[in-house]
Amino acid sequence: MVSGAERLLGVLAAHGVEVVFGLPGVHNLPVWEALRTSGIRLVGVRHEQTAVYAADGYARATGRLGVALVTTGPGAANCLGATGEAYASGSPVLIVATDIPSSLRRPGEYRGTLHETRDQRAMFLPVVKGGWTLREAESVGTYADSAALLATTAPQGPVYLGVPTDFLTADAGVWSRIPTRAPSAPDVGPGVELVAGAERPLIWAGGGAARSGAGAALGELASRIGAPIVTTYGARGLVDHPHVVHGPVHLPEVGALWDEADLVIGVGSDFDGMMTQNWLQPAPPRLLNVNVEAIRNYRPDVTLRGDARVVVSALAAAVPARPENGVADRVAELNDLVRKAVEADEPRAVPLLEALEGRRVVADMCVAGYWVGGFGRVTRPRGLAYPVGWGTLGFGFPAALGAALTGRVVAVCGDGGFLFACGDLATAAQERLPVTVVLVDDGGYGMLRHDQVRAGHEPFGVDLRSPDFVALAGSFGVEASAVDGFGAAFRERLDEYATRPGPNVLVVRAAALKPPVTTSPRWYRRTGLT
What we know:
Blueprint: H1 4-14, E1 19-22, H2 29-35, E2 41-44, H3 48-62, E3 66-70, H4 74-77, H5 80-89, E4 93-99, H6 120-124, E5 130-133, H7 140-152, E6 159-164, H8 189-196, E7 201-205, H9 207-212, H10 215-225, E8 229-231, H11 252-260, E9 263-267, H12 273-276, E10 287-291, E11 302-305, H13 308-318, H14 327-345, H15 349-356, E12 361-363, H16 367-375, E13 384-385, H17 396-403, E14 409-414, H18 415-418, H19 425-431, E15 435-441, H20 446-454, H21 469-475, E16 479-484, H22 488-497, E17 504-509, H23 524-527
Parallel strand pairs: 1-2, 1-3, 3-4, 4-6, 5-6, 7-8, 7-9, 9-10, 10-11, 12-13, 12-14, 14-15, 15-17, 16-17
Helix pairs in contact: 1-2, 1-7, 3-5, 3-17, 10-13, 15-16
């Protein structure tokens, strides 16, 4: 007999899963027993939301399926905020939650069974790509297979799988893996015609391009047609190419590339509100959409459906080459201007950005994270994870735990957001995860304090009393120290911590940074720079 728990883990292993993140409960303990001999690594966390954030961080860092295992009712409900971020950012995450025993469930009735929810799956439906609750133990293999496929098939996203606890010890029967088909060759003819007629094309690369590994193909296309490349938050570090702009369109000089373009080639992007200043950017004269699905925020003239890497490769091979038009020189000048603009706007952000250049970073929704997400020079694919999809404060540290399974990562957090999951310092210590936390302590919710002051109000309810973060980390056995500001001592200590094994925390005591122009109060198309 193969139990439901064994079948579940066997399916995950067949999909290449090597690690899962989870928290045990009375209903999912059979999975923990099966994990003993499964060959899959279990990273036990201290909160269910951390399980999903860590799975998300792992998925963003690797491109592979991230898996969170949680228990019934309140354990499942604790996942919802992190699941919403994975959904908004297109992360392939599978949430496996147990449910009450099928023998105790009465349709339409709430009986008060331990951890019972009237419809646990329904809680997840607004924030997942799809979801199922199993009705018999024999379907564990089929539905786990379907769920893993759905999460990792573009457009990627989180999937919920609910398993009544009694199915985990029941006979799971037989299972045959679902066959998959290779994608057909794309027809890029309509796109070639559109590109050939453009004089000032702009490539706009989004998270879908990064997830498909389309960087090299985009570089080839950019060189062939003489187009600059603007990347969204989800595509930072997509390709090392002289046509890549290392700054956001929220900066007027970068936004001018959009305004001047007679064709925008959008690759793997839905042109979301955070990148387009809530669509205050005017619709381009022509828009070529390379995507696996239709987009709604701007109306494309042509859509080339398919995997971004495959479609862009075919497009680059088919479009006529143009003479060198000086775009590399213009982009180099623009990148220099971007750095000078940062120096003029918030000089204290410069040493932070310089110290993080070349490192793998997970940024939280804090002012320091906004600077890194908007202006950090990311030099490798999947080198930045940033929760601007749903904007979930508290993402940075727990997501970095998952990313750290692939090597040293730096989590950039504020004093407020770090406290959302500080208990998982225990996870970092227990698993010896190579994560360095740069914890910027400005004594409150810096962005919200800025918003209140900007509106002419005294700060209220946004200043925070913080613990002694160095002592807090030390109590978990995690090395920690503190510095004042982002000067030489900060850079020296960060360089030192990056060479140490295991986790460490670097507290930076600093007055609040000025938020960058990527934050909505400073969007220039609406308010003018302030």
